[in-house]
């Protein structure tokens, strides 16, 4: 289980080695992604709260990176955080998320990125439910939900 202290250590010292790497030129990303996905994943935009695909969606399945297809989260770890964006307590595996310090907009946060393609997903905060206490607050545009079964 990943805890806040682990997130801070990853961001400060070294993230886990990803399961694979995918690097494309920006022109290829722009061709592959929708305009909204490109803005979020590649330009680090934030979609409007509450008006996104997965904010109020709780169907069973897994959530993958919209850029590279890496499985990032399981729906079993999704919860209603009243933040306006889909929220999760734990990633699907320790090495699928990359963490980075983000001081944009005069805030100190930890950015969550896909560890495979480097796409911006959202941020992680230490105010989630126990036992991990984490809240991965993500943009729906950065995710695709795949149904299981």
UniProtKB/TrEMBL annotation:
GO terms under cellular component: cytoplasm
Domain MsrB stretches: 26-148
GO biological process: protein repair; response to oxidative stress
Recorded GO MF terms: peptide-methionine (R)-S-oxide reductase activity
Pfam families xref list: SelR
Swiss-Prot/TrEMBL catalytic activity: L-methionyl-[protein] + [thioredoxin]-disulfide + H2O = L-methionyl-(R)-S-oxide-[protein] + [thioredoxin]-dithiol
E.C. designation(s): 1.8.4.12
Top-rank taxon, per record: Bacteria
Protein name: peptide-methionine (R)-S-oxide reductase
Native source species: Hymenobacter luteus
């Amino acid at each position: 289980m990943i805890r806040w202290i682990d997130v801070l250590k990853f961001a400060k010292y070294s993230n886990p080695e990803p399961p694979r790497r995918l690097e494309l030129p920006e022109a290829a990303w722009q061709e592959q992604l929708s305009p909204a996905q490109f803005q979020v994943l590649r330009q680090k935009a934030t979609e409007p709260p509450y008006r996104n695909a997965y904010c109020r969606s709780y169907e069973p399945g897994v959530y993958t990176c919209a850029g590279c297809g890496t499985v990032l989260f399981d729906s079993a770890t999704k919860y209603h955080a009243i933040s306006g964006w889909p929220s999760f307590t734990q990633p699907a595996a320790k090495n699928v998320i990359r963490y980075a310090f983000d001081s944009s907009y005069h805030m100190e946060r930890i950015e969550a990125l896909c560890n495979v393609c480097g796409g911006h997903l959202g941020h992680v905060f230490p105010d989630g439910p126990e036992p991990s206490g984490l809240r991965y607050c993500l943009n729906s545009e950065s995710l695709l939900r795949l149904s299981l079964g």
